Task: structure prediction
Amino acid sequence: MKEPEWLTSLRKKALSILDNAPEPKYGARIDFTSFDKNPVVHDEVSDISDLPSDIAEALDQLALTKVKAHGLTVHVDASTVLKELLDIPEGVIVMDIEEALLKYDELKKYWFGVFPLTLNKLSLFHAAYSRGGIFIRVPRGMRLKKPIQSCFIVSSSRYAQLPHNIIIAEPESEVHIITGCTAPRAVKESFHAGLTEVYVMRNAKVTLTTIEIWPYDMHARPLAGIRVEEEGEFVENYILLKPPRTLQAYPTAILKGKKSTCLMRSILVGLKKSDVDSGSAVYLFGEKSRAKIVSRAVAFHESRITQRTKIWSTKPGTHGYVDCRGLIIGEKASVSTYPALIADHKESNLVHESAIGRIAEEELFYLMARGLSEEEATGLLIRGFLDPGILNLPPEITGEIERVIQLTAEQAL
Result:
């Protein structure tokens, strides 16, 4: 596939130092190089009804097609197989990342512009072999009323899907991007490590919602780096409804501008023997910048969930708040939380709250006294604990998340 010379050179550089790079600090250890790195290409279709049945079924469980959106793209392995972009406002750019890299030379400065290329073996592996992805750019002053949606589906077993996404919100603009990540149930032992880099310019707002529903025999390492300029706002909603065997995520936001803000919210479900290591980090490098991290996790069966959070302040007038809560349902399940608050300025104000435990017996007895069985009462309390209503998502998405949470709780109990 044709690409700019600078990108080819960067790939060679990443390969040259890959073997000696450190392993990722967090998450279960896996051998990235054992997966098929050659791009698997699929034909593009003109309508959702033309998608293969297993791909259509995987897409349908994310509920993206039920939402009124400006546009939808569907990416399978290394290919974009569907583009529904007829309602994209004039001036907004939504295109394949390969096409964008050839058309817009200035994207060179955004490629690994906020996420460190040499961080570890995983970042270098991605840099060397990434294929596919989406480029979204919202022009100055345009505030979109409907979301832009993209779905990434892994359809090949033993395959490494490595898309690279770049999102740029120009000054005074606003956009909500909803992304779904999934795979057909028959896919085994595959690997997803998409990298998303988000640039929020002055007084712009980006909301990034990610919904992940994976088959169990998968591994996922979603990567994300965000930079927010003066009075910009970034909101992340990360919803893991069905985990793969191992998952590690640690999106990191740099609040560079004065009065910039960041809100990161996550809903995590652990099933079977899944190992979920998920967290968020925010660096308050702008005066009067603010950050809030909220995480809710429920561990079923023998799953293990680790919640990691960090807020680091270096400027006056900054505020940070972390709220991590975990619910243990399985007899052999576990939840751990590792908060880090670092204040390098005396006028920083950082707060952390956390709680891990089982369902309170008095709440359970209260509901059972009103006619609910123990399983029904437990399921109701779990749905309340993982309430997606706080995320302010389109009702179609909220309803589907509630349905999946209810079904998951019923099956697990």
In short: The chain has a mean pLDDT of 95.
